[in-house]
Model the fold of this input.
Amino acid sequence: MKTIAVVMVMIMAFWLRYQNHATVPLPGQSLDEYSYSWVGLSLIRLGMPVGISGIGGYPFSDMRYINVDRVFQSTAENNPVSINYPWFDHPPLLGLLSGGYAYLRGARVFEETSSWVIRKPMVVLGTITVLLVFALAAVNFGYLAGLISAIIYATMPLAVVGSRMVQGENGVIPMWLLSLLGLSLFLKKKNYRWLITAAIAAGIATLFKLSGIVAIISGLVILGQKKKFKEMVVFGAIALSWTSLFVIYGMVYDWETFVNVWRANTGRVYNIGAAAFYNLMVQIKLTHDKTLTDAWTLAGWIAWFLAIKKSILAIPVVSYLAVYILLGSHPYGWYALPFWPILTIALGKTLVDCFKEKRILTGLLLLLIPLGQNITKLVEINDFQKYATWWRVGVVGVLLGILWRQKTSRVLLVAGFLAAVYLNWRYLGLMNIDFWYKVN
Amino acid sequence: MSWRRVVRYLFWYLVVFYGLAVIGAAGLKAYKEKHFTKEKLEEMLTVPAGWRDQTNDVCKYFVHGDPTMGAGFIKVIFYCNNQKKAVNTLSLEAIKERKFSEIITSLGKILGFEPKLVLEGQWECYVDQKLLVDKSTIIKNKQIIECVRPGMNLNEVRAKL
Done:
């Protein structure tokens, strides 16, 4: 029964991610998706990574109109793409995944890396991430916390839409979660196989994107906090050995350009600004021109503040916050994606605690945040007027019910959770290409 | 686990790991030497997708935007019979050859129409109100190429569309 429930959540996660995966977000809203895939495809066909870069440090830039998905008629900005090789903006693992899949599906030229091909591996990776969210939460906080966290992450609109994109963060997240899972199991069972698994996963996270260094940082801090210094050395040495493969890769192709590109990277404009932490809570720019406000993120942050004493929740989020603020650059939504799995686990754990400890008011108020916001997205404010009385009576009734009968109010907490998840489902059901044009 | 055991374990791990990494690096370099050619790269950059819609309608697709790059831009406007026009704006950074024939060939590759449709008599193209007869005319920064069907008056068509 428990396994069946998890399998059903996985099926739901896959289905929600698969729907409109090729069209939402619109192809070309981030040309990075094609760039990664071109790197992989060119590595396979030419043995040379070729991609798009806006960073200095390359000896030349070859400007081209590569009209994949007809982006130059729709979403691409004003200029042709700048092709550079050997391409060193990011490590090549994500490219090998998406470009490799495109190659297996018959792509041989860059224009054949259409979004309906290259996003498919991300849908699978996103679904696996839901399983890892469940596993990490279950190992640390019990089956129910795992299930609730997985359901939230499976249906959270920002996570669903964001996980479709061919972005490095969508490779970092599952590896990071796997590393944290390995560490959790090592600390419980004292079996070194789990420590080594955690270290390798942390290292591989950096081969998707260098911000995956968060997996190494958080792993070292978790072990350090438990005073496991030998294990820190083992973890760090193994993880960093995998990270060093990117340096060796740079040496194989062109060391001078590799160094110059990374020097240029450090000179990027710090566009996230001082309001970065505030924006993480209330407004997520999913692409450069689409803001997808998802109230589950705010509920997740509040739950995290409530659960921050748990180091398995505190350390990863603080570590990634440090990486996020340190690296800065543009406030693109995908840079924030790694926060959501841990915040979802914090929320799942908090809701289960609220249920068990009869802190129903806390739980319901947390759920009211995404519940109310989802209603607003589904029903225009003018149309909502006919439901306003029901809403007023309902919410006041619920609050009074909590004060009067605790037993009843546990049912309300479950009902509130199911309603919030149902509204996620309904909102995602609307999110086709026509709807996406109206998202601001 | 003792520190001695940790050091020994890590030593052998790193020896094996970096041994394999060096072999992998050598293999990668050899693979690149064998497979990379500029011609193959050019093919990957320029050949359109096998499934891409090829069209006879030059107004069906277009390249939008206002390029901001240093070398400037040109526009290619098609005024079609069916009351449609297609305005294409191309950055000169991406145009290797600035001859009119090469620009139309490049545009045809980008959008999916056969360049012969434009270059071999089905369209009359003007630059600065002058009919382009010599297909190897060099097009300069910010010039606008306007193409109409033979027999149509450019000023009248412009006024309508």
Summary: The mean pLDDT of chain A is 90. DSSP finds 20 helices and three strands in chain A. The longest helix of chain A spans residues 229-253.
